[in-house]
Amino acid sequence: MAAPEADVAQTTGQLPDEDVPPWLARLRARIAAEQLEKGPAARVVRPPAPTASAPPEPSAAEVTAPQDTSPADGEAPAPAADATPETEDAPADDPAWLRDLLAAPAGQSPAGGAEMVAENRAAARRRARKAQRQRRTEAARNSASVSAVRSVVIIVAAAVLTATIFTFWTPADFLSDEIREGLRPAYATLSAQSPPTPIPTPIWLRRVGVVSGHRGPHPSTGRDDPGAVCPDGLTENEINFSVATRVVAILSSIGYNVDLLDEWDPRLDGYQAAALLSIHTDSCHQFDLPGATGFKVTAPASRTTARSDDERLVNCLRDHYAQTTGLPQHPSITFDMTDYHSFREISPVTPAAIIELGFMFEDRAILTGQPDLLAQGIVSGLLCFLEGGPPTPLPEVTPWPTALYTPTPLETPNPS
Questions:
Q1: Bridge-partner residues for 224, per DSSP?
Q2: pTM score, whole prediction
Q3: Are 309 and 351 in contact, with CB atoms under 8 Å apart?
Q4: Rounded to 10 degrees, what is the CA torsion of 254, 256, 261, 265?
Q5: What residues form DSSP beta bridges with 275?
Q6: Is 141 a member of any domain?
Q7: Using alpha carbons only, what angle is made at residue 161 by residues 156 and 166, rounded to the nearest 5 degrees?
Q8: Per-range mean pLDDT, top range of 114-128, 176-190, 285-299
Q9: Within 170-301, where are the H helices?
Q10: Side-chain half-sphere CA neighbours of 99 within 13 A
């Protein structure tokens, strides 16, 4: 047998039979067939496997001659049971040198068989060394990245710790007076060049709502509500609207966002503003006794969320309206005023008040002839509340004698 096949046989003898791959089993079968064909002298004895329990191989002297299996005259020779047919193609995944070996005629070996085996082994070793180098390179690269991140973290932590230590333990007199004086112009220049950024004021803090009493259609009738009406046709609605429009104009001119609202305006639902004032006028009834004169102002009676703001708004309106117009404050505050419907519709955080400008009969001259004066008194009271000005102290208002004038009795709700 040629040298390459003997070398392969010696190589494959190192594996137990149960671990032999298919291509090696076919190679062994091919070698066994060639030995059987050449006789006992060409048989190659497999070296013993390097295991402690493997039984010893028989020696050459113990090998007996094979029986004569030549066919009788006229009979076809029977093929060997373990021989691989010469025309069998090797699988596509077998090595190239093995495919050449199996394809060669029996008793022959392809050229360079031993060199091909050695070359394949050398290529396998080269691939193993290359893979090992790649793994080492990748490990070194990962280690370098981790080291860089760790270094950055350590530097930042050290800088923070150092700054903290210097901040807490730097004495107040670290800089001398001369150095401080030299730095003073730089501080002044920096302050002049970098003015503080103003914080925008929320819109609702500059918003004021002014309700023109009885203006607009009534929800139950769909018709305009004139309010109180004098015998000559003068209506409360006219007086209220005349003063309300002037209040809106004055507040708008000084930078406030003012809403002119109707009596039943849908915008009143949840209305939020810095203040809400509803403007009304008292009755045009001609009383037999004098004294039906003056204004009234009050806040919601049943609301507690903005009680302090409501009271401050009422105090500012009372003081400034009285001082500006010269009208006295009338003491007859009705339930309709303290339980005014708009107080229940607006946001509970919106300060609110209602004012009766005066009586349409006794105070008709100032109500119809001086609406600008009335509007100025209202604006002064609103600015007192909105901008925090202290109300001007006024003498106490003398209430009317109850025997001379008794307002129309109204049903008072049960406090409970």
A1: 217
A2: 0.48
A3: yes
A4: 170
A5: 208
A6: no
A7: 125
A8: 285-299
A9: 177-193, 236-253
A10: 8
pLDDT at 222: 87
Tell me whether residue 65 is in a domain: no
Cβ-in-10-Å burial (0-12, 13-18, 19+) of 141 comes to: exposed
What single-letter DSSP state applies at residue 55? P
Number of domains in the chain: 1
Which of 149, 169, 214 is closest to 356 using CA atoms? 214
Q: Is 315 helix (H, G, I), strand (E, B) or coil?
A: helix
- Selected residue with higher pLDDT from 384 and 50: 384
**Is residue 295 within 8 Å of 321, Cβ to Cβ?**
yes
Is residue 342 domain-resident?
Answer: yes
Cα gap 165→174, rounded to integer Å: 14
Kindly state the tokens that stand for 53.
């329990």
Q: Is position 4 within any domain?
A: no
The three-point CA angle 101-106-108 to 5° equals: 60
Host domain of residue 315:
203-386
pLDDT tens, position by position, 347-404: 999 999 999 999 999 999 999 999 999 999 999 999 999 988 654 444 443 433 333 3
> Given 3-state DSSP classes, what are the helix, strand and coil percentages for the chain, each rounded to the nearest 5?
45, 10, 45
Q: Give the model confidence (pLDDT) of 59-110 as tens digits.
A: 444 444 444 444 444 454 544 444 444 444 444 455 555 656 556 554 454 5
CATH number, domain with residue 292: 3.40.630.40
